[in-house]
Amino acid sequence: MSAVAAYFTMGGYAGFVWPAYAITAAVLGGLSVHSWRRYRASCEALARLQPPDRAPR
Amino acid sequence: MLSTLANPARFMRISGAALSWLGGASLFVLAAGLVWSLLLAPPDYQQGESVRIMFIHVPAAWMALSVYLFVSVASAVALVWRHPLAEIAAQAAAPIGAAFTLVCLATGSLWGRPMWGTWWVWDARLTSVLVLFFLYLGYIALVNAFDDTSRGARAGSLLALVGVVNLPIIKFSVDWWNTLHQPASVVRLGGPAIDVSLLIPLLVMALGFGLLFGWLLLLRMRTALNERKARALRLYGGAAAGDADGQQPVTAARAAQR
Fold first, then answer.
1. Which domain holds residue B53?
2. Distance of alpha carbon B168 from its chain centroid, rounded?
3. Backbone angles phi, psi at B44, to 5 degrees
4. pLDDT in tens, B20-71
5. Which of B97, B139, B222, B236 has its CA 20 to 30 A from that of B164?
6. Looking at chain B from residue 208 to 227, which residues have their Cβ under 8 Å from any Cβ of chain A?
7. Of chain A residues 26-55, which have a CB less than 8 A from chain B?
């Protein structure tokens, strides 16, 4: 077995280590993407309501 | 510093600059933490490679508790001083805390199966963290349960404050009761009972999670302020909302009446 393949077996704990990292990436990544999209949408909605030439400051 | 940031317009200016900095820093630190956790850190002499779950489980647990503390302090400020930014901060932070708690519970379960022989056990530590998760969900549900957003915010703030009692229960559960969960090994009297080779990646991941929280918090607070301002503009037109700048629609309405 190559060193790379051995690495991915995680000494027999592959079924626990990789799902743990995958769940973390999915939850935190999902929240980040969702928050970012909602932020962009809120900026665009505000820009439509408030054209740059009439915006305060 | 807090009073400087407490003005919504000034908050938008400063947080706009901090946003990209925090985003870049959290990406960088999390990438370094991942390489360290998954490649550089040695396997534990007893737990083998399964110890790598610790590098996400423990920082997620720290964040779960810290973010709840943040939500409750912001709620107290919102209740006592009625500052709109405190309310927005608490509401922006709660889903982030819930996400960290979910990560903590899921990775703990995946670590418990090979090490303890069970996915879940109703011991004091695991149960009190599950209660924390439901406190977050209850807070989020309560805030959104009212047509009148200010009533929802007040009810949520009260729930967040009552829930603080759970934090010391979680922290000391492993000392007060016989738990399957091990006692504290990093934040304890006498220093960390963990080897430096495992402690450093743990702290790097913790810093990464902290930076990610900062980025998400500012992002979600800015979103809430944008949405409030857009609502005020739609309801009361450009002039009133433009003057109120980030204030609640009620304020804009009062301004329009004058």
1. 21-179+202-257
2. 17
3. -70, 150
4. 999 999 999 999 999 999 998 998 988 889 999 999 999 999 999 999 999 9
5. B222
6. 212, 215-216, 219-220, 222-223, 226-227
7. 27-28, 31-32, 35-36, 38-39, 42-43, 45-46, 49-50, 54-55
